[in-house]
Every structure is written in structure tokens, then in C-alpha cells.
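Q: Fold this one first, please.
A: Sequence and structure below.
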Amino acid sequence: MRLIVGKYLEYMIILLLYVSFFTFLATAQTSIKVSETNPPQNMVLLIVDGMGSGYVSQGMVPEALDGSRIIPPEVPFMDSLAAKGVLLPYIRVPDPRTGPAHSVIVTGHSGAEPEMVDYAGATIYDVLEDEDFISIALMHKGDASGIRDEQDIILFSENNSVTEPYLKVRINGDAVPVGIINELEYWERQLPGYLEGTTGIDSYIAYSDWELDAAADMVSLMSGQYPDTKYILTINVGVVDSAGHYRGVEGYADAIEGVDRRLEPLYTAARESDTALIITADHGMAFRTINAARGGHASEGYRSPEALTVPLFIVSPNIVPGVIRDAHGQEDVAPTILSVLDVAGRPKYGNGDTILVKDYANLWVSSDNDAGIEVLQGTNTIASSSGRNSYFFMGLKPKINYTVRISNGDELLEQVVHLDADRAIRFGTSTVHVDGTSQDGENWRKVIASILILLVITGGMIVIYRIEH
């Protein structure tokens, strides 16, 4: 009799687990594809430390602080990227200090300090982790310790020396594939060979050659050995900034040209593996004269358009190629990265806006309770669904107005939204809020559901243990 009762209880517990699991799924987001989209599977984010937009963007000529014009570097490959992808030459940097600027890029908050990167849910890496991406990085030390901690695995330099860097592979994630570990350890051993026999600015260029070669090889490795693994690869090339500080105008230009010469293999590897490539900078560089031996960006007297304007290149299968000359803030980079990937979430503290670079836009809609939903263009219903409290509509025609209508029993709420970029609408009790932020209410529901499931599982295990013993 005890055995029968025990088995009965065990089956009831299993049934309860299934009910809890599917109750959790019922609160999850429903994705609805309105038209065909073609988002990339992966992302490469290349941050060229100190690369001002005026030095690499078509139609722009950099100026020294005394007003004289600087002969820009020759960057034929970056020049070609406007045809291959999107170039936004007027990205405004709110704070040209290295640490805050890197933090703005990854948090999407215009006032970010490095400490913000450590906050839960604050970065693009946190959002992408929820989407089952792994984070891989190759970067110099710089002031990006918090960003290093965000990576599942990273190869970085523990000092800022160009000629005698101290490299280290750090594993932060629990399930990094061994092939990725081996690949980064291989490239850790290759740098001395690149630097051997080089001096002066040639050492700087050799360093960036090594880093960009390693990045291209990593993209190829992921495509060949881990084609089903989604990832973001972050690369911080620090030699351009160092050259600007210590090698003057000529060395700075040479370092930028060195980066440009090594970009094509990385671009090709990304294009062939359904991977978007984004190239930007944390800040630019200013020089007092066209023959200055040193440059600056954050110290007194150097904060100028050359230091405060950076480029944003985006190459992805789902974007519309061309040059967008509208000015945008550096805080807009993070939500735009996630928009290119068609990811609904946004960094928790971000105040940036998504830049529309695709030929479609996405709309996220949430409500306090499960509800029916309609998305209308004029009087025509474009999409509809019911039974959930969170919906993600992908592939809507951009730059037009939509009416979003939800119904829950006798309650009917609607809101008109101009879809000039990816947007989020939150319906509360008789209230509506439109913005581009993440779904905090939905996240809390998921947390609560997860806790309930954990409690049920724990209780079930205790009961089963007592029955068996």
C-alpha cells in the first residue's frame, strides 16, 4: 500500500512540475513575424580605440585645434564599407574619457561610468546572455575591466605595453567550448612572432595585425566548428589611441591605415558566416597643430569635434546600405546593435534610441495581464494574437503609424505609435507607455515563475526522498 501511495505521489509531483513549466511558458513572449526578415545570427563589435570620425569618414577632413587641416589617412577598405553596409559618421561622444566611453557603448546610457557595467542587466552582454549568446573578446587592458568581466571568455593584455604586452586568457563562463579555449590560447602564443624585429610605429601596426588576424580566425572557427552557437565577439584595438598620444599626427595616421589594411579578412569571415560586423570607436583624437608630436581627447583643451565624434559602420544582411548623416549619440549604439540582431530586450538603464538601419522595424508590446492584441495600419489588421501578456512583432514596415489595440475582458486600450525605429509599448491598467526600453514587468514575471518552479521541484524532491526512505 505504501508503495502504491508513493508512486501516486510521485506521479502527482511530476504532473505538477509539467503544469508549472507550461504555466511559465504561458507568460513568456510570443514572437510574430509580420514579413520576412533576415537578421544575422552573430555579431562582431570592433572598437578601434581613439579613431575619430573625421579621419576615416568619406567627405570629412580633420582639423587641428589651430584650425589647420590635417591630411587624413588613406583607408580604402573603410571607404568601401559605405557601399557594403551603413556608415554613420556623426556619432557624438558624451564623455571622451576611455572608461566612460566604453561603458556608454555597451550600456546604452549617455552618463555611464565603468561601475554601471557591473549592474545586473546593464549591458548588451546581459541581454544577449538571455538570448543564449556567448560573449568572446580580444582586447587591450584600457579601462575596461568591467567589460572584461562580462565576457564568457577573453584574451586580453594585463598591461598597456605595445612592445611587451602580458597576455592572459580568462574564462568566466561555465560552458565555454574547449575549441574556443584552445583557439585563444593558440593566439596568445602568436603575438611575439608578430612583434619580433619591429620597432616604433611598426610595432603598433604589428600588434593590431595580430589582433585582427586572431579575430578573423575566431569568426571562421565559430562558423566551422560551432555553427549553431550564437555569439558576440568584442575586439578592442588599442594601438590607434596609443599612437595618437605618443606618436603624433603621423604615427596616428599610420596606425589607422594599418587597421584598415587588415580589415578585409575579418569582414569576409563575418559575411560568409551570417555574422554582422559593427565598427566604431570610444572617442576620437585631437592635435594642436598638423605637426603635433602628441594628441589628446579628454584633457583640458582637447575636447573638440575631432575628439567627440566617432564613426559607426554596420555591415549586416538585414540593413539598407548607405550613409546616414544625421547626428546620433553614442548611447544609441547599444540598442542599435540589439536591433540589428532582432533582439527585443534592451540594457536595463539605457537611455539611447535605436537607429533605423534596416528596411523594417520591430515592435514589442506588453501588458499587465494576458490579453488579445491587434496591430492595425489604418483600418487594416496587420497582425493579431491572444493569450499572452508579451508580444514581439517583427518585420513591420517602418516610418509609418500603427494603432496597437489590446483587449482584456471589457477593457479595451489602444495607442498610436510612429514606428521610426524599433519601439516598445507597455499597457498598464488604463495607461499606456511608449519607449524603446526593455520589458521589466515581463522579466519580473519570469523571475517569479522561475522561483515557483524551483520551489515545486525542491518540494517534490523532498517528498520523493521521504517516500523512498
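Q: Good. Now the second chain.
A: Here it is, same layout.
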Amino acid sequence: MSKMSEKEKQALQLDEEEIEILEAFEEGKLEKIDMSEDEIEDLKIAARETLSENNRISVRIPERDLRKIKERAQVNGIPYQFLITAVLHQYAEGKISAAL
């Protein structure tokens, strides 16, 4: 696979994080992770719902927590917003619980 030119990246209107992900992919730095069928299905559902009608909210997150979320998302090769949405979806569906 050939690398995209800067002009092609701009045409896609990628944000800074998406450009970093694309470049990591082009450089072969991303690795496939093993997931169960249930995990894959959860991510597919979250992806479909991400593309469906959504409501925007603003949430204040401590800088330290956001940095850790971004690091974990990068390790798993996914955008951090997707990770946050997936976790919230799993919580909403009762698949995970929160210790408050």
C-alpha cells in the first residue's frame, strides 16, 4: 500500500489524531489484537451506533484521565472518542458496571 500524499489527507479532512493513526498504519506500526467474538460484536454495534443519529454532549474530564484514555486507545489502534463511546455504550447496556 502506498502512502497518501499530504494533499490526499487534506482532501479527506482528517484531524490531527486521524492523521497520526493513518501514518502509523502506513508505517506498519499498528498491530492486530486478539478479541473474542463478543468483543468484536460489541465494537460493531458501537460503530453502527456511532454512525447513526447521535447527540453531542460536553463532559469535563481531568487531563490525567484523558491522557490515559488516549494512550490506551492508541495501544489498541482506535480513536479515543470511539473508546469512550464504546465504554459508555457497554455501561448503558448493563454489560459493565461502575464502582462509584
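Q: Anything worth noting on the second one?
A: DSSP finds five helices and no strands in the chain.
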